[in-house]
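job 3f2a | input accepted
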Amino acid sequence: MTLLHALDLLSTFVFALVGARVAADRGLDYGGIAFIATVASISGGTLRNVFLNLKPVWITDPWILASILGAVFITLTFRRVTHVGTLLLILDTFALATATLSGTQLAYELDIPWYSCIVLGIITAVTGGLIRDVLCQVEPVLLHRETIGTSAAMGASTFVLLHALDLSTPVAVIVGGVVVIATRVLSIHFDLHLPKFVK
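job 3f2a | predicted structure (199 res):
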């Protein structure tokens, strides 16, 4: 198992865990919790691969589904339902960074134009959470707070810029991931948001 594969599994697990907790908090049944966890964790990567004309990873990698089942099992085992806490928020931020850079790097390796790499990195990172919130009938976090999309865009853009400066892929991935995490942490800590349209 490569480091990138391990990080992909970890991000899948965390996205599934957060999705399962949100679903449990909304009072969904076991099937609903499992469905939301699955959608939240694989939608971004699946959509990215569809755009790139690639087979979705979960079709051929049983560990992806195993990580989702693990997240659902943990959620159902620890039955006390609480809102997503600090620990899950930290893990979710790390998963956001991993998904962003995973999507951006994959697109870059396929010689996709740089701007498309950035878009695909963002799609990989935010699609699952957006669909999760819509299905759970909560206001999507992506659209109104925490600058999740901005964090992903900053990290993906950093990756592309560093590659343009001929830095190695590992360095570009690490620095891009740090930018994603730093942007989100700062936006939460200082309550920063993109400007809202005022009528």
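job 3f2a | The chain has nine helices and no strands.
job 3f2a | closed
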